[in-house]
């Protein structure tokens, strides 16, 4: 039922977003706007150059750089032909300050770099179609310079701004807007159903494939609007509530009238419902700190599980390492770089938190409350772990299997560190081997 809910939820979300996009493009109102009142609009690797002051970001660096977090936005050069950068520089700043724009197609690693632009162009509408755009492609020598006409560029999904001053200067940026100035010309006006365009049609029922098709058809090719079919005429959230009722009834029948398991189930579904709300995404920067506080409280209450375990859980370590090697050698879709090793320590911390919830908190309590063998408890925990990852179908399938394995491993060995190591390693390998079209994103809920 949660798989159906995921499909229905994402279909509705995509269709509504595309209809909104279609309406706005027809009204010449499909503007892309970033308010720089926090660092959330800046890609994290560029945040160090900037500080938040009031409702703007400011930098005192000599050559600050800023990359916008596109948040799924795609720039269509056929209609987006004007850029407005709102900001100011200190009076002491050199008058010959300049900046460059670097748009890119990250999927194909093609970069389009502007000529030097005067810092005096801040707060003025900049005609992007009037600029010369140097094309930089991977594997092509810089001596073979080529240039592109803005309106002939297919699509862009990243923007970096590089500022150059002869001395450190105070630069303040309030916002950036890429404006639609041209009408959208669709090759075919009428929408087309996903099942009509892609075979086998079953691919259109997988949310990850739906996301990929939507990106390719609606946001990149821009020739005909693609719509997703619904499974049933029932309201989207009816499938969610049916799942809540079924799981609650199951636990009531098996838990000897104990409310603990029911409360655990309801807590999982409340978390799922919340993470699918638009206001959560809008206010996530404010919610991060309460969530962090809850996690710290959870860690403190369960700190005794962080002690060295009695059982080494050797099979968990060996199976995780062996499976990772087999997957990387046999299924890796791109070269494995050092970034996997660099990401591992950070992901290991997050894996510890998840395994603390999956093992001591959920698996242990359910095993005490439900009259079931360990194998069945592992299945129940796997299902709960899976549905938390809605509406990401591929991630739901992967976490169903992984959740069952980790729950059973915990019930058998009670080794948090073995499970966390397995989780971090297999998750990073999974992201490495999955094709873009079949995963696309590890995000869940409204963020997917």
From TrEMBL:
Record GO terms (molecular function): endopeptidase activity
Q: Per UniProt, which keywords does this protein have?
A: Membrane, Transmembrane, Transmembrane helix
Q: Name one Pfam family in it.
A: Rce1-like
Q: Indicate whether Nuclease appears among the record's keywords.
A: no
CAAX prenyl protease 2/Lysostaphin resistance protein A-like domain ranges (all copies): 367-427
Q: Which GO terms describe its biological process?
A: CAAX-box protein maturation
Entry keyword DNA damage: no
**Segments traversing the membrane:** 236-253, 258-275, 281-300, 312-332, 347-367, 379-410, 416-434
Identify the stretch annotated as signal peptide in this record: none
| Protein name per UniProt | CAAX prenyl protease 2/Lysostaphin resistance protein A-like domain-containing protein
Organism per entry: Marinicella litoralis
């Amino acid at each position: 039922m949660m798989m159906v809910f995921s499909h229905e939820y994402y279909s509705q979300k995509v269709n509504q977003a595309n209809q909104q996009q279609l309406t706005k493009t027809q009204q010449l109102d499909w503007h892309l706007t970033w308010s720089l009142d926090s660092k959330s609009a800046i890609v994290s690797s560029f945040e160090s150059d900037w500080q938040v002051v009031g409702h703007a970001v400011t930098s005192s660096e000599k050559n600050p750089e800023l990359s916008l977090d596109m948040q799924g936005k795609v720039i269509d050069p056929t209609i987006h032909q004007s850029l407005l950068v709102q900001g100011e520089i200190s009076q002491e700043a050199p008058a010959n300050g300049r900046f460059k724009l670097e748009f890119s197609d990250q999927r194909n690693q093609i970069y389009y770099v502007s000529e030097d632009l005067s810092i005096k162009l801040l707060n003025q509408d900049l005609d992007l179609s009037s600029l010369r755009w140097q094309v930089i492609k991977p594997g092509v020598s810089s001596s073979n310079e080529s240039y592109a006409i803005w309106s002939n560029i297919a699509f862009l999904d990243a923007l970096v701004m590089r500022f150059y001053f002869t001395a450190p200067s105070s630069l303040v940026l309030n916002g950036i807007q890429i404006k639609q100035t041209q009408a959208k010309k669709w090759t075919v006006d009428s929408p087309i159903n996903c099942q009509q365009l892609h075979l086998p049609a079953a691919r259109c029922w997988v949310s990850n494939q739906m996301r990929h098709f939507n990106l390719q058809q609606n946001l990149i090719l821009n020739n005909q609007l693609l719509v997703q079919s619904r499974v049933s005429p029932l309201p989207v959230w009816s499938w969610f509530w049916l799942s809540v009722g079924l799981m609650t009834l199951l636990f009531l029948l098996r838990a000897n009238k104990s409310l603990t398991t029911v409360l655990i189930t309801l807590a999982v579904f409340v978390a799922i419902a919340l993470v699918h709300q638009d206001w959560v995404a809008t206010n996530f920067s404010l919610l991060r700190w309460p969530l962090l506080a809850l996690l710290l409280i959870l860690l403190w209450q369960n700190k005794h599980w962080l002690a060295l375990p009695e059982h080494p859980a050797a099979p968990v370590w060996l199976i995780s390492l062996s499976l990772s090697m087999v997957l990387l050698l046999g299924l890796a879709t791109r070269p494995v770089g050092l970034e996997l090793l660099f990401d591992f320590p950070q992901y290991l911390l997050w894996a510890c938190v998840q395994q603390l919830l999956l093992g001591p908190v959920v698996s242990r309590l359910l095993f005490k409350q439900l009259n079931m063998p360990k194998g069945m408890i592992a299945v129940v925990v796997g299902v709960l772990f899976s549905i938390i990852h809605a509406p990401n179908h591929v991630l739901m399938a992967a976490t169903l299997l992984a959740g069952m394995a980790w729950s059973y491993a915990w019930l058998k060995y009670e080794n948090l560190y073995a499970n966390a190591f397995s989780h971090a390693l297999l998750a990073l390998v999974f992201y490495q081997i999955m094709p873009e079209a079949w995963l696309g994103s590890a995000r869940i809920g409204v963020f997917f």
